């Protein structure tokens, strides 16, 4: 199991754990809310019974204070209606909207407020009937403010936890990317530094061989010089990692054709190369780094071809979006659709001796240095794969007018 599969598995377990915590919190709070509902219902029924007997209990000095305390300290808003449905009295409502006219000029009396409150009470709980002085009344109530808050508390809690986890994940991911970038840059520059000395020695040795053996026109020496130049280009590539590369206007077809001429000589004869498409389209490129992109794609394509096969590159210009599409297609073993994104992750490889850094570096070069995009356009196992690179065209077109 590669490290990215392990990381996805841990993310899955943590997500399930967070969901279980959220569900447990919701269920616990829900049971607590139901318990409070029952207590409020019991208190309301007690309040109604005391209201029924209030007139008789007021005559007894021993109960008068108790009755008044119970009547005026209800925590739940209450509205009482008579037999015709008219509101006769209320308790616990908003005092700024229930003041009678002329009682206080700073306060208001909102008749629609009573209608809305009564409608809400009827929707929440059934009424409790009561008899008072021979008349029948109905008492309605709604949940207290604290109970209403408790209903939404677990969802608010889950939202805050989710926001915290999202922020923490973004912060840690950013820190991890910065750390990876520092590792990439340090490794690349150290590699470039280490390659410098042997390359200089190889250049000196080839010059010595040419002069000592009079081999100025020897094809083997010429090929050795080509490889040394290639090493110089690779060293230059590594030295550019971490620095802002200089982009210049180039014809894409020519850049890719030049690299294919060098690459196919060093690849099996069983792999055929072809390049088609628009030969005039141009883009802003850093040629050493862009050659690295093409090299990584061609190496992966060649490794995917087990026996005989072909690698084709098609260059397309999208005039509407002023973009350049570069499709690299092979006839190799293909990539499962579930791995389309994973192939660009550092360390992902299907080869026993592979490091899994080629496509990851390719993606960085295309996106970070060329402001482009690269992805697996299409793949079918046993038939082949197509990678697509999208670059910004350096050609600009003005719309024609009649």
TrEMBL record:
Residue ranges of domain Histidine kinase in the record: 190-395
Catalytic class of the enzyme: transferase
CDD domains: HisKA
Nucleotide-binding found in the keyword field: yes
EC number of this enzyme: 2.7.13.3
Keywords for the protein's UniProt record, in alphabetical order: ATP-binding, Kinase, Membrane, Nucleotide-binding, Phosphoprotein, Transferase, Transmembrane, Transmembrane helix, Two-component regulatory system
Protein name: histidine kinase
Transmembrane segment boundaries: 12-29, 152-172
Molecular functions per Gene Ontology: ATP binding; phosphorelay sensor kinase activity
Catalytic reaction annotation: ATP + protein L-histidine = ADP + protein N-phospho-L-histidine
Annotated Pfam families: HATPase_c (PF02518)
SUPFAM superfamilies: ATPase domain of HSP90 chaperone/DNA topoisomerase II/histidine kinase (SSF55874)
